[in-house]
Amino acid sequence: MSIIKNIKARQILDSRGNPTIEVDMRLDCGADGRGIVPSGASTGALEALELRDGDDSIYLGKSVINAVNNINNEIAPKIIDTESFTQASLDNLLIDLDGTDNKKRLGANAILGTSLAFSHAKAKSSGKSLYDTYNLDNNLSLPVPMMNIINGGAHANNSLDFQEFMILPIGFDSFNESLRAGVEIFHSLKAKLNKHSLATAVGDEGGFAPNIKSNSEALEIILDAISQAGYKSGSEVWLGLDVASSEFYKQGKYNLSDGSSYTNIEFCRYLEELSSNYPIISIEDGMSEDDWEGWSLLTKALTHKLQLVGDDVFVTNPDIFKKGINEKIANAILIKFNQIGSITETLDTISMAKANNYNYIISHRSGETEDVTIADLAVGTASGQIKTGSLSRSDRTAKYNQLLRIEEEIGASYFNKDNVFGRWLK
Question: Cα-atom radius of gyration of the chain, to the nearest Å?
Answer without folding.
Answer: 21
